[in-house]
Write a structure and sequence with these properties.
Layout lengths: L4 E4 L15 H14 L3 E5 L5 H11 L6 E7 L2 H9 L4 E7 L2 H7 L4 H17 L3 E7 L6 H13 L4 E6 L6 H14 L4 E5 L6 H11 L3 E4 L13 H11 L11 H12 L16 E2 L2 H9 L19 E2 L7 H10 L6 H16 L6 H12 L9 E11 L2 E11 L2 E8 L3 H12 L5 E9 L8 E8 L5 E8 L2 H21 L1
Parallel strand pairs: 1-2, 1-8, 2-3, 3-4, 4-5, 5-6, 6-7, 7-8, 9-10
Antiparallel strand pairs: 11-12, 12-13, 14-15, 15-16
């Protein structure tokens, strides 16, 4: 069994994604999470790029993390000095090596590039730091020249060489051949850095490992320049689950790490993102859901489970749902349903789905209660009697709720970044902080300034039980409150049953 090291560049290449700019406190939080996740190396930034970048790298270097901290530098003494002054464990130097890059971005001959690279490796090593050398645009560099420069820095005692597919033009078979050739001629460890311009970053990284690469460069959620980089979770789980190749990653923190980076960068992942996406272990199709309820590996890879990556499996209601999954969801919530009633509920769910509507848990339970004749208002855990929301140019958005909670009069208040945020916090405050909102989406379902707003929410308790619901009103705040209260009411009712 082989072991591969994980080099995370979320804080350097990941931050180069258009629209992403991380303040110091966010960078520190991500660095600590990456250390918790177990990455071997954290590329904290490009210290010479700005004063703020230098301070961020220096701060992360001072955290005494288990992971090594790396700083990026050109083959320029001032860049290297900035990285060394930031107290990094490793300096990652790079220089363009492809014909097109040399002609248009570097004012040096090929021989001068080799000489300067060797000089910089010597300089870094003389200061007691580790050195990584990158031949930028390696996949468009002539193999003879690529081999020459790598051999030269290997002889200068660089600790590792990096083979970047800088513009994402490699394909798995060609990249495999390239890494195999380099592996046969080099003794120094090989690292790879793949971009996703053609959607092949993960596949190329995987192929490189099979060809003999010792380390992979990845980012959380695959963020980065242009179309991004190889995704950390996908690469790691392919290696662990399919190839049985070890890494230092504690996979149970993959979902948690993805969500933190998603929140701090503002880059939301599509629900169908592999491994960490909301739908990665979700099933709506009746055939799939029925199979998964009996044996999860029927319609999941089997070699990776949601628990392995800190995720959850969900059986989702929709127009493709089958009777078995609808019955299972209802029974788990405490409803007793015979075949005749089940068929009526099933047909109603299909009817809603065929109208293009999302079918929420609340829709299913509302349908069931009407058909079963069980709808009882007094069973609601929360009944809101009065809502007051304060907001304005110089006023901190504040919401005050007067409600009856489990038959007891209660008043709660909360502040937020806006009136909706404050109101949602106040609602969850009625039943304690153990219930949180995991999804919030709003649509205008009519036009005009008095448009009717429809809000979808998912709430989750501390045990991982979740419930989806909707609310609609002309007032956005009230639509949000109604949705959350509907969800919380039914979540609490499900737990009671």
């Amino acid at each position: 069994m082989k072991e591969v090291k994980v080099f995370d560049t979320t804080l350097r290449d990941g931050e180069q994604m258009p629209g992403v700019s991380l303040p110091l406190n966010y960078k520190v939080r991500i660095a600590k999470q990456l250390d918790k996740l177990g990455v071997d190396v954290i590329e904290a930034g490009f210290p010479s790029a700005s004063k703020g970048e230098f301070e961020a790298v220096k701060e992360i270097s001072s955290l005494n993390l288990n992971a090594a901290v790396c700083g990026l530098a050109r083959i320029v003494k001032e860049d290297i000095d900035a990285a060394l002054d930031a107290d990094v464990d490793m300096v990652h130097i790079f220089v363009p090596t492809s014909k097109i890059q040399i002609e248009h971005t570097v004012k040096m001959s090929r021989e001068e590039i080799i000489d300067k690279s060797v000089e910089c490796v010597d300089y870094i090593k003389s200061h007691g730091a580790k050195c990584m050398f990158s031949a930028m645009d390696a996949t468009r560099t002539e193999i003879d020249y690529l081999m020459r420069i790598f051999k030269a820095v290997e002889e200068a005692k660089t600790d590792i060489v990096n083979v970047p597919d800088t513009v994402g033009v490699a394909t798995p078979f060609k990249f495999y051949d390239l890494i195999r050739q380099l592996r046969e001629h080099l003794t120094v460890p090989i690292d790879v850095h793949c971009h996703n311009d053609f959607g092949l970053a993960v596949a190329n990284t995987y192929a490189a490992v099979l060809a003999g690469a010792n380390e992979v460069q990845v980012t959380v959620n695959g963020i980065g320049e242009r179309a991004g980089n190889a995704d950390l979770a996908q690469v790691v789980m392919i290696l662990h689950s399919i190839e049985k190749i070890k890494t230092s990653i504690k996979t149970e923190y993959l979902f948690e790490t993805s969500k933190l980076v998603e929140r701090l960068t503002g880059i939301k992942m599509p629900p169908n993102t592999p491994i960490v996406g909301e739908n990665a272990f979700s099933h709506e199709s009746g055939i799939h859901a029925h199979g998964v309820l009996k044996e999860f590996s029927t319609f999941e890879p089997g070699v990776v489970t949601p628990e392995m990556v800190g995720h959850k499996r969900r059986i989702v209601i929709g127009k493709h749902a089958g009777r078995h999954q609808i019955k299972k969801i209802l029974e788990d919530a405490g409803y007793v349903v015979d075949e005749e009633k089940l068929n009526q509920i099933f047909e109603k769910v299909k009817e809603i789905g065929d109208r293009g509507k999302r079918v929420t848990d609340l829709d299913l339970f509302a349908i069931a209660e009407v058909i079963l004749g069980e709808l009882k208002r007094e069973e609601r855990a929360i009944n809101v009697e009065e809502v007051t929301v304060l907001t304005g140019n110089k006023i901190t958005p504040t919401a005050v709720l007067n409600a009856e909670v489990f038959g007891e009069k209660k008043v709660t208040s909360a502040i937020g970044v806006g009136p909706v945020d404050a109101s949602l916090k106040a609602v969850t405050g009625l039943v304690g902080e153990s219930i949180r909102i995991t999804e919030f989406r709003m649509d205008a379902i009519t036009g005009g300034s008095d448009a009717l707003a429809e809000v979808y929410v998912t709430v989750e308790d501390e045990e991982g039980h979740s419930f989806t619901a909707r609310g609609a009103a002309q007032d956005i705040v009230m639509a949000s409150i109604n949705a959350v209260i509907n969800a919380v009411n039914y979540l609490l009712r499900m737990k009671k049953k």
